Amino acid sequence: MVKNMRDAVVVVVGGGPAGSFSAFELARRGLDAEVFEEHQSIGVPSHCSGHLSIRSLRGLGLYPLPAGVVENTFCAANFYSPNGSKFSVHLNQPVTCAVNREKLDVFLAEKAKKAGAEYTVGSRIQSLIMVGSAVKGVRVVRGNGAEEAVLAKVVVDAEGISSRLLRQAGLRPLNATALVYGVEAEVDRADEVEEHAVEVYVGADYAPGFYGWLIPRPDGSAKIGLATKMGNPKELLQRLMRRHPAASRQLKNSKVTKMTFHPITLGGTIPQAYGDGFLAVGDCASQVKPTTGGGVVFSLTCAQIAAEVAAEALQKGDVSSDALQPYQKRFIDKVGFDVDVMLRARRAIDSFSDEKLDRAVRFAAKMGFGNVLRDVDEIDFQGRTLLSVLRKPSAYATLAYLLALYLPI
Description:
CATH architecture of the largest domain: 3-Layer(bba) Sandwich
CATH superfamily of the largest domain: FAD/NAD(P)-binding domain
Distance between the termini: 65 Å
Number of domains: 3
């Protein structure tokens, strides 16, 4: 039974990066924002490797990050085919960083709090409060079981991969057929790896429908993971570590110290992420790169836009679906082209057999495609990055070869 009722201007559901950055952007605009996080601690459990673009973070005003958040920086990547063939990219400067996700989430939450946002942890959103088709707030269940109704002019859904609140708002959820299932682990050591290079492993025997990765730390430990469309992620990770020609050599002396599991959405952004009094940001809106499954930067980018549109609508006193519709247009203008290119790339990659993947990796290495990418400084907006490298002959040759592998003869 609901025993209490109160008001907030904006309720944010979820204290992950999308929720906290939404709250920060709302609060710095002078709006009353309250974040409800179901877990007792921000950042726990961690659901991704935290491999992020330095340029994108800087563009969002978040880089450099505080001491202790960044675990390593990277200026190289090594790609391994199913038979162990290797293709390497060495960039002219560090382009990405690996962050401690728990510390990043805490940093973003503290940033939001300093701007004026309020946080309530250990409280689960049971349901939206609906009046007709309009969202008017949320029903909250506290850790002690007490229920509370919190009325709000706008609810920002940043609950993560779940589409529960989207459905309640009458919106189409993310594409469940485009989910892959990930496992993220930590190992105590990794041998024969470059300190500032990410390792990537492809092949249906190890990560069907996606890939595996290893992200080293300067102390010799590493994050390792994979995602898959089928099979048991834990068993596949063990197979990768024991049998892959490269990974088994690098991890032969390692011990897994931690392991978590999480789904990843690769289907592209949902067709409508707004409604009457409602905005969806982050994983629940499938604001995730279809190629790599990275969602933090896209989530932060879209959270910033969501706060901007919500503030404009509240200032006008109109939070209807029509008033919040610019959110969809603005974030599509920002990420839509790149998502479309990445969706096409994902379909092409998924169509490759292991034999074709071996051939593609060998050809890219032979053509020196890594040299084409030396000046790349952006990994999130991959459509634009592709356009920038197409000026070079070896890029044309490599892409033409990949197209020939993709198209049936």
